[in-house]
């Protein structure tokens, strides 16, 4: 015991195999345990970095997909607007054509009425001419 105390005072210790050590066996064991905990912590950090990396990659992919869908939606909306404008222009053209045809119909109706009146006048003239003979 006294020899161990003297050695302990000099900073020398015996381990469980009775080998002479500079470090106190308990300190050495705590150091080894700390080293293992540090390794485990580093492994967890590396794993965490991998998870975060894959998460960032996934978010980037989703952002690109969302941007692509947004562009498709904008394209579709612009296409619909241009189709609506085309339809509007077509409708205006057809309305103008209808108005033109109505005016033409009115001219034909007036011309027809005039021709009917002329025919009636001529028939009356023919009848009078025949009766005079």
TrEMBL record:
Domain of life: Eukaryota
GO cellular component, one term: ciliary basal body
Annotated localization: Cell projection, Cilium
Ranges in coiled-coil conformation: 80-111
Signal peptide range in chain numbering: none
Entries under InterPro entries matching the protein: FT20 (IPR028172)
Keywords: Cell projection, Coiled coil
Coiled coil recorded as keyword: yes
GO biological process, one term: cilium assembly
Protein name: IFT20 protein
Organism: Herpetotheres cachinnans
Lineage: Eukaryota, Metazoa, Chordata, Craniata, Vertebrata
Gene name linked to the record: Ift20
């Amino acid at each position: 015991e006294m020899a161990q105390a003297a050695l302990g005072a000099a900073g020398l210790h015996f381990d469980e195999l009775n080998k002479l050590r500079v470090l106190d066996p308990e300190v050495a064991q705590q150091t080894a345990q700390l080293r293992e905990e540090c390794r485990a912590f580093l492994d967890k950090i590396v794993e965490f970095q991998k998870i975060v990396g894959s998460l960032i990659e996934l978010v980037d992919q989703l952002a690109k997909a969302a941007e692509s869908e947004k562009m498709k939606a904008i394209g579709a909306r612009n296409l619909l607007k241009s189709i609506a404008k085309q339809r509007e222009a077509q409708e205006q053209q057809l309305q103008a054509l209808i108005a033109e045809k109505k005016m033409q119909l009115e001219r034909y109706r007036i011309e027809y009425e005039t021709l009917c009146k002329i025919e009636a006048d001529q028939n009356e003239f023919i009848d009078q001419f025949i009766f005079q003979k």
